[in-house]
Amino acid sequence: MNIDSIQDVTCLPFTAFGPESAEPIIFIHGFGGDASTWRNIQVQLENKRRTIAFDLPAHGRALADFEPCNAVGSAKAVVKSLDALKLDRVHLVGHSMGGAIAALIAMRSPERIASLTLLAPGGFGPEINAKLLRRYAVGQTEAEQQVLLEQFVGLEFELPRKLADYVATQRSTPGAAEALKAVSGLILEGESQGVLPTDKLGELPMPIKVVWGTQDKILPTRQCHKLPGPIACHVFDRVGHMVHMEIPQEVIRLILENTR
């Protein structure tokens, strides 16, 4: 079956690369992002693995057809999309809010997940930079997004030249900022976030890797310091919240290690 041709309103919009395979790598982006955040990694994996990156509800191409929801709702939407694509077993890679979503899917359907790679995942502790996320959700000018996005990366990392303009253009789409504001209200609890039962993650049968940067200003690195022993934690110095953007080669290496 050629899944690239599927047009199904129950399936989240997605971008696929690489040859069809039984256990593709599924990428789940973070709050305020979209599938394009994974493009560099997908292109580099194109000759090695099948990869699929979804747009989450109320994000990107899923703005019109999918209502704003919290991480649980997004997890259900991803599972429905896997069903629509007839994918019974996959590798999951999630960043930030997408990490929390991937973890929820793995805890609910462990038999379906071959491996779990979580990049600066949400839900590993109550602390979160809620003020920054709320501003990031609604900023509609390139100058404003440039200032905000600089807080997402390490001090030495230079943002891609057109990223701020791209994000500002996305926010200017009718209804986009309002939808993200609604999502932020669903995933944030005042100035904190909900916490996942990480002890349950440690009991899951698939290999799990967590990747974090020491300069993360969104979610503090210490949230990975006391994870259960079976979970492998990889912490990189001088790296911020956008680990897949800042150190793509290291992230690709860890994903491939986890999916073997």
From TrEMBL:
Alphabetical keyword list: Pyruvate, Transferase
One term of GO molecular function: monoacylglycerol lipase activity
Alphabetized InterPro entries for the sequence: AB_hydrolase_1, AB_hydrolase_fold, AB_hydrolase_sf
GO cellular component entries: membrane
SUPFAM superfamilies (alphabetical): alpha/beta-Hydrolases (SSF53474)
Any one GO BP annotation for this protein: acylglycerol catabolic process
One protein family per Pfam: Abhydrolase_1
Superkingdom in the source lineage: Bacteria
Record's keyword annotation contains Transferase: yes
Positions of the AB hydrolase-1 domain: 24-246
Annotated protein name in UniProt: Pyruvate dehydrogenase E2 component (Dihydrolipoamide acetyltransferase)
